[in-house]
Write a structure and sequence with these properties.
CATH architecture: Alpha-Beta Barrel
Structural class: alpha/beta
CATH topology: TIM Barrel
Largest sheet: 8 strands, parallel, barrel
Number of strands: 13
CATH class: Alpha Beta
Distance between the termini: 26 Å
Strand content: 15-25%
Oligomer: single chain
Shape: globular
């Protein structure tokens, strides 16, 4: 899998990590364009290859009254508009076999959620679209087990796969990142560290997931030091009022300083 395989991806020769970044969910056109515009300016300045991230629907919810989306086709059309407006690739997660071909008409990367990465039919359907498949490591899976998910993509006739680590369940209400897993998973495919989901605190009694956004830079720095190929960061201009995952998202105003620090660390690590 080469970054050059992704349409519209810029700065692929900068030797930087690549970035998947955007809101947890597409809440509307204006918010998506506002976030994308800011992140594009930052990543162009820092020469970071950038893929806009937004979920067109949220199928994994704690409560039945939780926000699930604004409508599948409406959200996917917004992702397409983000792509054409800023000339950047986009990524969204899929949950059912029928989602694969449908979403592939609008986005460049299909993401398999962590809870679903062992679902063979879903992984195969994503691979057969010809799009890049971002395989999120299950919170219950070892790094070594991810080679089988990658192999499913290859056995479906594609070599376009990434692995994303989003932490491992630690007890009932916390996540940890075992950085020993990064070199292991990089043997199988380019590996991304999902910084913000790794800081979730799930299974809260209120039915709303908590988080530790104060630790975002700590986890991101450790990922860069340990040579992750990419970073995944959810961001919003108003996390407190975001419709999904606001408790662990990075405020958009803090993104440029964070990425500047991480790019500096990357250069230092690669000079050693």
């Amino acid at each position: 899998m080469n970054l050059q395989d992704i349409p519209k991806l810029k700065h692929t020769n900068s030797n930087n990590f690549f970035l998947l970044c955007g809101p947890c969910a597409v809440e509307g056109e204006d918010m998506a364009l506002r976030i994308a515009e800011k992140v594009v300016k930052i990543t162009d300045k820092l020469e970071i290859p950038y893929v806009f991230k937004g979920s067109f629907k949220k199928a994994n919810r704690s409560r039945i009254d939780s926000f699930t989306g604004i409508g599948d086709e409406q959200a996917l059309k917004i992702l397409k508009k983000v792509s054409t407006t800023f000339d950047i690739p986009t990524v969204t997660d899929i949950h059912e076999v029928s989602d694969a071909a449908f979403a592939a008409q609008f986005v460049d990367v299909l993401q398999i959620p962590a809870f679903l990465v062992r679902q063979t039919d879903l992984v195969v359907a994503a691979a057969k679209t010809g799009k890049v498949v971002n395989l999120k490591k299950g919170q219950f899976m070892s790094p070594e087990a991810m080679k089988h998910a990658v192999q499913k993509v290859k056995d479906s006739g594609s070599d376009k796969a990434w692995i994303t680590d989003r932490g491992t369940m630690f007890g009932y209400q916390d996540m940890i990142v075992d950085f020993r897993g990064i070199p292991t998973m990089r043997q199988y495919a380019p590996t991304v560290l999902d910084v913000t989901h790794s800081l979730q605190q799930p299974n809260q009694s209120a039915g709303v997931t908590g988080g530790r956004p104060d630790m975002i830079e700590t986890i991101a720095r450790a990922g860069v030091v340990n040579n992750v190929d990419g970073l995944f960061i959810e961001t919003h201009f108003d996390p407190a009022n975001a419709k999904s995952d606001g408790a662990n998202m990075l405020h958009l105003d803090n993104l440029e300083q964070l990425l500047s620090n991480l790019v500096a660390i990357r250069k230092t690590v690669q000079s050693l």
